[in-house]
Specification:
Length: 447
């Protein structure tokens, strides 16, 4: 059967880009009036384009656990093939920097669920979009202003960054899948040789798709201080539904040992939470009686003489489900799963599925409260093989998630990679609700 081709195009808002360009140009003109005039003709221009061609195939065994009855909550694919072209364009001239990362994808996936147990997987989906971009103006040596689209990540955590209000996922379990970029306005002031004061305004969703939640403008003010042995960042962020006070840092104890932490205190707006997740709040599974909820990671790493590295961390998530709340949610999932198996639905089925979907969406980064993560990585084995082994343990329910990533160079421009993911524990464990295993095999070419 011939494959069906479906095209979906996403474009940046043209008027918004024009307005932002004009605003930056106006600022550049005023800055040049205050300092000695420098033009691109008089300074060195650096420009170029890097190309990456990547293709991979993925096979997964979906568990359809009690929190994902019939795979109707997560809608995870059991098979997926993707080919993507990733050009990265850059231009630097004097105080001006421009970068753009358009993406061109062709993919096909098979999603089996209770409603479509035998889906037609011949449909090829093509997508063209801009996943990252940068327009930055350096004003003297102390200031910079930029408009960018990026996946804004920070902190040393292996598992989760509680202080990051923009993206708490770090994407390390899917290293070859790019995180989607959001749109930011960022202003920075460089204070001496050690301090940076940054203001962030996440003004648009960019390429990120919001399912249960709606996009909200998010603002953050951060101060970073760097010394020879340690770095520390404190920050405050706010959006309509949440205020966060927190920070992260690391301390180099010696040539081998680094200690790190990432902590936040978040205050959730009760009315906003009830508006976004009404079923979750009414059930009592999403608490609204806490003034401030704590999230914290504490860990360290040890580097061996041969270049390998071992890291370990503990993560505490106060907003996660308690034992009683988890039992209540699993009972709801058990009731919905039984109705799917029997094919006899009561009036409670829709309400149960809605509750499951809202709680999973609200706590998608971490459903429970206590986690331990460990990682081992070694690069340049036999001058060509890189290995990362990661294990995450759910200390509350005893489940675990293991990831092994292998990638090796092929010639000067090629790379082949294999990523394996497996889950362990009983049927009630959080990590066992969605995947049994997942294997990804692919290759890339860079020029």
């Amino acid at each position: 059967m011939a494959a069906v081709l479906v095209c979906r195009n996403k474009k940046l808002p043209g008027m918004l880009l024009v307005a932002l360009v004009l605003q930056l140009l106006a600022l550049q003109v005023s800055a040049l009036h205050a300092e000695e005039s420098v033009s691109c003709i008089d300074s060195m221009v650096e420009a170029g384009i890097d190309w990456e061609f990547i293709a991979y195939a993925e096979k997964a065994e979906i568990t359809q656990g009690l929190l994902n009855p019939g795979n109707l909550i997560a809608g995870l694919p059991s098979k997926e093939e993707l080919v993507e072209v990733r050009p990265d364009i850059r231009f630097e001239c004097s105080a001006f920097t421009f970068a753009l990362s358009p993406r061109f994808q062709a993919s096909r996936q098979r999603v089996e669920d209770a409603l479509t147990p035998e889906p037609d997987d011949d449909e090829v989906d093509t997508n063209e979009f801009v996943n990252a971009g940068l327009l930055r103006l350096d004003i003297g040596t102390m200031w910079s202003l930029e408009v960018s689209r990026q996946a804004l990540l920070w902190g040393p955590s292996l598992f989760f960054s509680p202080s990051n209000p923009f993206s708490r996922f770090n994407g390390r379990n899917t290293p070859y899948v790019e995180l989607k970029g959001k749109d930011y306005l960022i202003a920075r002031a460089f204070i001496g040789n050690s301090g940076v004061l940054s203001f962030y305004n996440n003004f648009a969703e960019g390429e990120v798709e919001y399912l249960a939640e709606r996009f909200e403008h998010t603002y953050a003010l951060a101060f970073e201080y760097t010394s020879y042995e340690w770095t520390a960042t404190g920050l405050y962020s706010q959006r309509k539904s949440e205020q966060t006070l927190g920070g992260f840092g690391q301390y180099t104890l010696n040539d081998y040992v680094v200690l790190f932490t990432d902590i936040s205190f978040a205050r959730i707006d009760e009315d906003r939470l009830a508006e976004t997740f009404p079923a979750g709040v009414q059930s009592g599974l999403l608490d609204t009686d806490k003034d401030w909820a704590t999230g914290a990671t504490l860990g360290g790493s040890y580097s061996f003489i041969d270049g390998s590295n071992v890291s370990a961390e503990y993560f505490y998530h106060e907003s996660g489900l308690t034992e009683a709340q988890s039992d209540s949610l699993l009972t709801t999932g058990q009731r919905a799963s039984a109705q799917l198996d029997d094919g006899a639905f009561t009036q409670d089925f829709s309400a149960d599925m809605s509750l499951l979907g809202q709680v999973v969406a609200a706590r998608q980064a971490a459903l429970r409260q206590h986690y331990v993560a460990m990682q081992y990585n070694k690069n340049d084995i036999a001058s060509r093989l890189d290995v990362v082994l990661r294990w995450t343990y759910g200390a509350t329910d005893g489940g675990s998630l293991a990831v092994a990533d292998f990638n090796t160079t092929v010639g000067e421009h090629g790379r082949v990679f294999l990523t394996l993911l497996g889950t362990f524990g009983d049927d009630n464990a959080e990590f066992r609700q969605f995947y049994d295993y997942r294997a990804t095999l692919g290759a890339s070419l860079t020029f």
